[in-house]
Design a protein that fits this description.
This protein has 284 residues and is α/β, with parallel strands linked by helices. The protein is built from ten helices and ten strands. It has an eight-stranded mixed beta sheet, with helices on both faces. Strand 1, helix 2 and strand 2 form a beta-alpha-beta unit. Helix 1 crosses helix 7 and helix 5 packs across helix 6. The structure holds iron/sulfur cluster. Iron/sulfur cluster binds next to helix 8.
């Protein structure tokens, strides 16, 4: 059976821990679509699954680590990136993917996110952004658009949200893309590119959370969110990340924004080591 992606649809079953199913996600949630794109991307890249590790934090998206039949780790809240950093430093041959949500990666884990991007450590971060803390009841998150309603901002969010592509671009990421869960072919391609790219890659996946965020913001079903993505997505490959902020009910700029060659953390380390050895040799 072959889908539009050209990949055998049954090919992702081998990457699923079927004994863990059914999953916990609500009807209309987008996390399953994002996970499916990731698993298709794993298949598409041809990378060795035995040399791959998936790390998640806490939250609805964090459950992904429990469903994939790869070496996977469901870590503490906000600490997926430091855990993944340790894995990569300990075993540089591993292809390390962090798969987590906006609350986990950008709020409590925000410090780790910017420093991983600054270091350009070789890993891929997939951030499912549904603009709220879905699992714990729909509280406002750091990416919730201004004036969005959440259970803790019933009159509208009065904080300024993070624009994630801009944040990680300014911090030093080598690859940055954003898609929605409507754009499954583009998302799969972006994830496979990101996993093959040396350095820090970041993919934001705009995703429905109908039962908490959507219910309060005119998207009470997953299908409503899909209609919104269809009507409001604007494709702008190469867009300046400064121009990709998301306003409530406004356009969603999607595409590949950044793809640049930068020395990775390991390459910089080797560069410094080499110079230090040359200096020592010259002194003798
Ligand atoms: Fe998905 Fe929201 Fe339900 Fe969590 S609460 S599973 S994010 S729809």
């Amino acid at each position: 059976m072959t889908g539009n992606t050209g990949v055998d649809r049954l090919s992702i079953e081998k990457y699923l821990r079927e004994d863990r199913l059914p999953h916990i996600w609500c009807a209309g949630c987008g996390i399953g679509s994002a996970m499916s794109c990731f698993l298709r991307a794993v298949d598409r890249t041809g990378l060795d699954p035995d040399r791959m590790a998936v790390v998640s934090g806490i939250g609805c998206t964090g459950r992904v680590a429990g469903y994939v039949k790869l070496d996977s780790f469901h870590t503490t809240h906000g600490r997926a990136i430091p855990f993944a950093t340790g894995l990569k430093l300990g075993n540089p041959e591993l292809n390390v993917v962090v798969f987590s949500g906006d609350g986990d990666l950008v709020a409590i884990g925000g410090n780790h996110l910017i420093h991983a991007a600054r270091r350009n450590i070789d890993m891929t971060v997939i951030c499912v952004n549904n603009f709220n803390y879905g699992m714990t009841g729909g509280q406002v998150g750091p990416t919730a658009p201004f004036e969005a309603r959440t259970t803790t901002t019933p009159y509208g969010n009065f904080e300024s949200p993070f624009n994630l592509p801009y944040l990680v671009a300014a911090s030093g990421a080598a690859y940055i893309a954003r898609w929605t869960t409507l754009h499954i072919r583009q998302l799969e391609k972006a994830i496979s590119e990101a996993m093959s790219k040396p350095g820090f890659s970041f993919i934001e996946v705009i995703s429905p959370c109908p039962v908490t965020y959507g219910r309060l913001n005119k998207e009470p079903t997953g299908l409503d969110s899909m209609h919104y993505y269809q009507e409001k997505s604007v494709l702008r490959n190469g867009a300046d990340p400064r121009d990709t902020g998301i306003e409530l009910n406004g356009p969603i700029v999607v595409g590949k924004f950044v793809d640049r060659e930068l020395p990775t953390l390991r390459e910089r380390l080797h560069q410094v080591e080499k110079k230090a050895k040359e200096r020592t040799k010259a002194k003798k």
